[in-house]
C-alpha cells in the first residue's frame, strides 16, 4: 500500500526536470562550439601572421594573407550559416623589413543556433596576432 499513491510522481518529476536538462544540454553544446570557433579564429590569425612574416622577396601582399586566413576559417569553422568573417583592418605592417611587426586581427559575429531563441544575442569573437617580420 505504501507505493500505491505515488504511481504518477515519477512522470510528473520527469516532466518538470526535462526542460531544464534539455536547456543545459543545448547550452553545453552551444558554448562548446563558441569556444571551438574562438580557437579556430586564434589559429587563423596565427596562420595568416606566420604566412605574412616569411622571409621572401617580394613579401606576401595583404590579399594573399587574407586568402590564407579565409581558407583556414572556411575549412575549420563550425557555423550554421554564412560566417561573416572580417579581417580588420587589413594586415597592419610597421614595415616590411626584418624585425618590423605584422598584426593580423580576425573577427566574426557568432550567432547561437538554439539559444538565440531564448534571448541570447550574437557574440563577437575576435583574435589578434602580432609577429615580427623575418
What is the compact description of this entry?
With 134 residues, the chain is an alpha+beta fold.
Characteristics of this structure?
alpha+beta; 134 residues; 4-stranded antiparallel sheet; single chain; 4 strands
Largest sheet: 4 strands, antiparallel
Number of domains: 1
The share of residues in extended strands comes to 15-25%
Terminal CA distance: 83 Å
Structure description:
- With 134 residues, the protein is α+β, with helices and mostly antiparallel strands.
- The protein has one domain.
- Helix content is 45%, strand content 18%.
- The chain is built from two helices and four strands, in the order ααββββ.
- Strands 1, 2, 3 and 4 form a four-stranded antiparallel β-sheet that branches.
- α1 packs antiparallel against α2.
Q: How would you summarize the topology of this molecule?
A:
Blueprint: H1 9-53, H2 62-76, E1 86-87, E2 92-93, E3 101-110, E4 123-132
Antiparallel strand pairs: 1-3, 2-3, 3-4
Amino acid at each position: 500500500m505504501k507505493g500505491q499513491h505515488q504511481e504518477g510522481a515519477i512522470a510528473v518529476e520527469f516532466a518538470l526536470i526535462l526542460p531544464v536538462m534539455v536547456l543545459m544540454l543545448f547550452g553545453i553544446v552551444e558554448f562548446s562550439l563558441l569556444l571551438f570557433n574562438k580557437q579556430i579564429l586564434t589559429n587563423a590569425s596565427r596562420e595568416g601572421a606566420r604566412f605574412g612574416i616569411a622571409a621572401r622577396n617580394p613579401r606576401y601582399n595583404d590579399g594573399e594573407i587574407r586568402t590564407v586566413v579565409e581558407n583556414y576559417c572556411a575549412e575549420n569553422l563550425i557555423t550554421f550559416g554564412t560566417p561573416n568573417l572580417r579581417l580588420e583592418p587589413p594586415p597592419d605592417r610597421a614595415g616590411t623589413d626584418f624585425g618590423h611587426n605584422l598584426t593580423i586581427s580576425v573577427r566574426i559575429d557568432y550567432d547561437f543556433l538554439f539559444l538565440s531563441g531564448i534571448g541570447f544575442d550574437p557574440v563577437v569573437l575576435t583574435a589578434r596576432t602580432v609577429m615580427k617580420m623575418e
